[in-house]
Structures are given as C-alpha cells and as structure tokens.
Amino acid sequence: MTRFIQNTLIFLVSFMTPVTQAGTFDTDVNVSAYADAEQLQKEAAKYKPAKWKIPLNQNVIENMLVLDGELAVLSLRNYRRGLKRDRITLIDLAKGEMLWSRSVTEDEKDISIIAISKKYILIRTDSENTTNLITLKLRSGQPVWQKEIPATGRVMVQQMDSNHVVLATANNSKVEYQYINISTGDKLWLYRTTKTGAAITKLISHKKGIVVPANQLAYLDAKTGRVLWKVKIKYNNNTAPPVLWNNDLYIVDVNNKLNRVNLAKGKYIWSHKNPNRYLIMAVDVGKKQVFLRGLENGTVGQESVVIMLDKKRGRLKWRQTVNDKLPLISNLVDYKNHVYVGSPTTLYALEKSTGDIKFSKLVSKSQLSLYPLMLRRFDKKIVFIGELTVAAYHATTGKKYYRRGLTGINPAADLSALEISIKRLTKKRKEQRNKPMESRVCSFCQMSAASQTRADAIYRNPERFTAGERSSWRINVSFSRMYAAMGVYESALNFSQKVYEGLISQMDKENLARHKLIRTTILGAYPAMITEKYVYRPTRSLDLIDPDAGEFMQITAINLETGKKSKTSMSVPYKDYGLWVYVDEKRKIAYQQSIGFSHNADKPLMSYLIAKPVVLPR
Fold first, then answer.
1. Residue 453: which domain range?
2. What confidence tens digit (pLDDT) does each residue in 58-89 have?
3. In what order do the strands lie in the sheet with 59-67?
C-alpha cells in the first residue's frame, strides 16, 4: 500500500498578491512582483514550459495523495471560510483534468480523506450531531455506501490494508473497534476493550493479525477478530511509538519501560527496567542491539541521552549524555563501529562499543526548529538532511564532503519562525480568554453627572439665589454640558477600542490557525520530498551576479550522493509567497501550487495547480 500511495502535503503562506495567468510563469506583471516582463521572458527561456495548469479558485492544497503517478486526490481548504476543509477532488495528472469534486454540504463542518484503494476512496464528513463515512468510486466519485455515526464520543478511522479500515469509537471508559470492508461497508467483526487515555490508540498490522495496544496487549486474527493471545502490558501512547521488527514488537508501557514481545507466539521476552527514569522518545532496533533516545533531568534543564541495550536480554550496555541545547530528533543510523544521530544543528557519531562520542559536526547554526531531520548513508558518507541545510560527512573521520545551504521561500515560513509564532499566539489567545471582562467607565460622563448634581442642588431655591450661587450654578451647568459632549466622544473611543480588540482577537485566531496548518503541512510534506537519491526543497532565487535578473520561486533538487544541485524556476515571488511540490522522478515533472492572496476582500484569491518539467542533477 505504501508503494501504491505516495503522500505529500502542499501549503502556501497567506496574504499574497493576486496571480493571473501569463505564459510559463502564471504571473500578472501589473501587480507588485519581483520580476518584470523582460525578466520573465529571459527566465522562461531557460526552462521547458508548463504542461498544464488547473485553476483551484479560492482553495489551498492541504493534502495531495499521488496514486501510481497517474491520479492525485486533493484535500482543499477554503481561504475565504477561515481555512476550513472545503472539498476533495480527483486530478488526472497526465491530462491535467479535474475528474470530480465532492464539496461539503450546508450541514457539514468538515471533510477529509480516510482511506484509498485502487477502486475506492473513503471520506469522512462531520456535522453537528453525526460523523459520516462515505465510500466513493475512485474514477467517477459516485457514492457506493454511507455509514452514519452519532457524535457522542471520540471517533478514529485507520486504514489497515488496501481494502479494510478499522472504525474506533470511544465512549466513557470503553473503546469499540469495527473491522470494515472499504468496498462494501460490511462490518466483519467487532472488538471491545477498556479505554486507557484521552486518545484512541492506533492498531498495528502484523502479517494476518492485528495488535491492539490498550490496557493490555491483545492480538487478533484480522479475518475473524478472534483474540489469539493477550499480554499484560499497559500501553503508554504519550511516548515513543511501538516498533515492529520481524516478529517482535518493542513497546513502551505506562511505567516508561521498554518491552519486547514475540507476536508469533504471544510470548513476553524481556523488559528494560529504566532505573534512571529518562523519558523514552524514540526506539531504534538493529540486528544485535536496541538503541533508545530520550530526555532526562540534568543539572540545567533536560538533557538528551542515547542508550544501547543488548537485544537478546534487554540489558543495558551503555548510556551517553549528549550536551546539546536541542533534543536529538533524527533517525539513528547504525554502520559498522559507529551509530549516528543528530539534533537540528549537529551531527553526532558515537562509538558502538562504548557510547563515547567519536566526533560532532556543527551543520547549521540557524536551524533551531524541531523539524524531524533525516540521516541517510551512501557508502561511507553520512548525509544530514535538514530543513534548509543538506550536508555529507565521512562516516569514520567526520571529513566534510559537501554542505548545501538553501534560501527558504520566506523567513516567516520556516519551522523556526513558525514555532515562535505559534507559541506567542497561543499564549496571547490564552491570556485573552482568561482576561476578566473589563467594564470601561466613561469618566467624562461621570464628571458631567456630578456637575449636573451640584447644579441641581443649588437650583432647589432659585428665588433665594445669591450672586455667588447663581454664578456657581451657571458654571456647573456649563461644565455638565461640556463634559457630556466630551463623554460622547469618550464613549465612541471606548466602543472603537472594544471593536478593535475584537478584530485583533479574531486576527490572532485566524493567524494561529493558519500558522498551525503551515507547520503541519511542512512536517507532512518534507519527508515525501526525500527520495532514494534526491531531496527537494522550495527555495527563492537570489542572483548576486546579476541583480537585474529578478527573483523567482524555484524547486531545488540535491543529489544526496554527490551533493550536486539543480534549480528550476516555477513562478515569481510576491509578498509572503510560498510553494510546496511533489516531484515525479520517472517523468521528471514537478506538480506545484501557485497561489496569490489579496488584502482587498473584494478581489478573489487566485490559485493554480501546475505541472512543469524539472531539472534533476546527476
């Protein structure tokens, strides 16, 4: 199934200038762009023209599932509706045609893709009181069957294979798992268990069985749902995910212990006692060793730790503290006498026999986001693949082969900036919600009332007015009228301030939602932009030699083995412009979304999906 479906996510940063079609670069030179007509023509001559472009109106692509390189299923969010999921559509990639679309109805709040087989697509829609599962024919979009679920608890749907999903519903203390045929909607079996936490735990497929990690580990026959065995291990879903290695499952329990269980026999093998109480963040299994990465409380905050266990008995071999301000977030590479792991800025090589640090290489000073970077090995090269930095080092000596720094699409769109922005906006929104309702007092209105009260007190005996009292009465009446006029102005200011605060609060809410979506899509898109030989990144061109060349949004491709890179200009940047891409290496075609936003609400958002030949380095 993983070969059948390749997943990439595409999102573009908001508030951009509208884009209209004009030649290769889908650009209107009359708007404020970073290239004029002459620069556009000169740049276009360097590359092959676009194969096709499809208008997507006011939508941005959240999710693009590419099926066998022939079809793409798009999940779209509508910018005019607060980035809510708007519709799902199928694209013929060869012809550049939109085959069908399924939009949300008036009663539906959300729509999402759940599962895809070669003939069917299962979608989920959510309304006020119900969740609906709907299977459509993949080629035509015609409905096949529909299942309605009352919205009385949590719902999770997980695809298990090419033709089956598990529908999990949680109410109070119970979780119910239904095994459903995608093509017919038939429920093949039902399994109930005790709920272990707020979230519903995902199941694990193993050959002809399914593992249910809950208050205990249960192994079910996938065809009948019959329980084949149970092991008393209570799963902790707030730590490292389970790892399946051949017939063995490595899983962390609620006591933060790593357990090894043989799934073929339902046999408990060993448990790592974890005496130092470090929080296990990742499990990597090798032929003879098991490596753990985690966090423990150090002298100054939390420290990263790498641990090696004997695979046969689960005994501790060594533990190594890594003094890095950032956690170890890469995968672990095991090669000959060393193991390699990385933080967002640094590559570490550890001696496999002792855990001692052989060498550390600072790869990037600026990459501070917790993007889950990837390490790869090519012969004797260890390749560090970060968000905007790709570098290769000799596996034994640490000698640098190459380092490629990239220019991001926009400073506000990298993960470091997004992390800071999301934390700031989240804190601000929390403070706004917790802030007590402020009653704004009109001080001039109070002063007007006080002056009028004093005047009224003097006016009770007007026949006996003295000259001083008459003068005082006139002064207070005069002040009352003046303060009343100023009070009208002050009240208007107070009302305007409330309206302004409301607008700012709404803008903060929208920005937070947008930044969270951008972050989610980056994290989802980047792993799909790393193939066996290449890594792809959306970049901005900066021609230092020819300052009159203009700026263009590009796809940069890097050959991971050689370090050679190539660039293909895709469009012209506007304010806060961004793009994400999916590259079909066999056809050498890049599928990219070009999009523009406008501050003027009367002008529509223009969005296109474009297919264009891409240059790949050798």
1. 430-513
2. 777 777 888 888 999 988 887 667 778 889 99
3. 5-8, 59-67, 71-78, 84-92, 97-103
